[in-house]
Amino acid sequence: MKNTLLLIAVFLTTFALFAQNPYTITDHDGEEVTEGMVVTMNNFGVPAGSFDYFVTNDSDEDIYMRIEFVSAVNADGSGFELCFDQCFIDLVIGQSIPPAPNFVTIPAGETTPSGNHFAATLESNEVQDYNFRFYLTDSEGTDIGNDLNFTYRYDPILGSNDFRELGVSITSTVIFNNMEVNALEDMDMIIYNLQGQLINSQILSTGNHTINMSYLSPQMYIVKFKTTEGISKTLKILKK
Prior knowledge:
Blueprint: H1 2-19, E1 23-27, E2 37-41, E3 50-57, E4 63-73, E5 80-84, E6 86-89, E7 96-97, E8 104-106, E9 117-120, E10 128-137, E11 143-154, E12 168-170, E13 174-175, E14 178-183, E15 187-193, E16 198-204, E17 207-212, E18 220-227, E19 232-239
Parallel strand pairs: 2-11, 13-19
Antiparallel strand pairs: 1-3, 3-9, 4-7, 4-8, 4-10, 5-6, 5-9, 10-11, 12-14, 14-17, 15-16, 15-18, 18-19
């Protein structure tokens, strides 16, 4: 009976170790990338369209990793750049980075250096999804699972290229402390977070405006501009 209980305890401990990934993925601001997460970028190219990431080995042993390009919507991988230790462009669905039997070794307790990113480098008029799978291998390069699935979304519909016809322009969709806005006519500006909560609402008069965003946490936000005639447009900005 004692031997049976011991075997069950060992099995449950082993299962728990394999059920929980021994690594953590974070973005440039330290926010964790979780299973099924979708990160939306409304710029293309490097660095404007880059989603930077870091992988931390939370275990006390070395781990070996690859990233698989699983699938895409309205895209085939052409012009897409993925850097994981080294950079690859023009991906093919089903391709792993780095190619088998190679892998990226992350020593126990360490984090990958800066420079790793996902980026759509070609402009498109369509929303594009690129679906990826982080996974572990053994020391021989064999896939052993411990997956984390992630989607990079390029969304030009919420871009700023066509805002001039509305009579408003912003200097950049990547914001650090201030958002610089030039309004050619009076209009309303409303800022929401991705959960739909109101962050800021104000009337912009004709001219240049500096919108303080230093107090906001680093993440994506939605900005809506609406003229007195009721014409409106929205875009996403990334607060660094």
